Amino acid sequence: MASKLPHMNVVFVGHVDHGKSTMVGRLLFETGAIDQHEIDNFRALAEEHGKGGFEFAYVMDNLKEERERGVTIDLAHKEFKTDKTHFTIIDAPGHRDFVKNMITGTSQADAAVLCISVEEGIMPQTKEHLWLSKVMGIEQMIIAINKMDVGGFDEAKFNKVLEEVKTQTKQVGYAEDKVTMIPTSGWTGDNVAAKSDNMTWWKGGTLLDSLNKLKAPEGMDDLDLRIPIQDVYKISGIGAVPVGRIESGTMKPGTKIVFKPSAHTGGKTAEVKSVEMHHSEVPQAVTGDNVGFNCRGLSHEDIRRGDVGGPESNPPKVARAFKAQVMIMSHPNVITEGYTPVFHAHTAQVACRFDKILAKLDPRTGNVTEENPDFIKAGDAAIVLIKPTKPLAIEEQANFKQLSRFAIRDMGATVGAGMCMKIEENWD
């Protein structure tokens, strides 16, 4: 039965215009998840918008504004199955204005495909996406060196970008055996699902082969439920339908859930009536599944994006203060105590204050190099006491790794990232 296939969420990331959406559309077409007549319709629509050649991108770019601008703004989810795995693809925006959606997408994924144009190579956004993928807990990475058709399917061009990319992945901390690199063209379909006749020099597999080799997460279904809420829809005749990705545990009708912080309700408890995946009702959903669910006794005003659902016996933690290990990626000045950027943790965005800088660390070994430093700067790793300005649901790394991670953003850029090591004070 298809439902027995292991399920994986894969996020497609990369610099704007490096061909992510086209690659995803091509992959869905080649695996039979969408058919020819749909592509023909998208082609006509793309030409109408003066965007000839964007038909595969249109598969994922659902919003009118995205179609007219030719950039991906929000997250899109589509599914396809191979004989080995059931995949949900998350297409994340590359444009720097939309990084917060990219962070949410990356925090929901088990693996990432990073698209890099062979003509442009590594761009600032490519570095940021690679770095954020690592920090948001993605251990398995496929790098598609894309637009090979534009580069004349030239092996030398591929090898040049390949070397750049190897240096970069090493710097970020990816183990070599966790990264696969492939020459592709999403536009022509070369090396996406079938071996390319234009690149006979390439002895490795296709993008689809690499996806099939990814390992799905195991052993999370037995833990207590954790589901960060991405959105809450109000559906007439049904009521509130929260949606999100199950990070651990299982959910089925009858499950009792408490939502935290639910700032204005103090943590609302509700009973699950039904669970849906990809518009059809399922008897139960497990770790890694993107679900919508309907609850008894819950209005759409009771919960919001950034809340986390879990059982009453072990509810999600809400921190008033927590100790975190942070890595500062880029900041024009030094960072001192009192600095208050925005933390993106799972689907929540909360301004948090650097209350005390406790220690500076060697980023490679994790050893303390200085106690109570006056400041930290780009390139530094540190242990910091963090105080959220309002209740933030976050977990300790030892208990729920996926919900301990966060990205730090300020002035429209990613400043750094880190993880919660210990909650010092709960928000009652």
TrEMBL record:
The keyword ATP-binding does not apply. It catalyses: GTP + H2O = GDP + phosphate + H(+). One of its GO terms (molecular function) is GTPase activity. Residues 5-218 form the Tr-type G domain. GTP binds at residues 14-21, 91-95, 146-149. Keywords: Cytoplasm, Elongation factor, GTP-binding, Hydrolase, Magnesium, Metal-binding, Nucleotide-binding, Protein biosynthesis. It is found in: Cytoplasm. GTP hydrolase that promotes the GTP-dependent binding of aminoacyl-tRNA to the A-site of ribosomes during protein biosynthesis. This is Elongation factor 1-alpha. It comes from Marine Group III euryarchaeote CG-Bathy1.
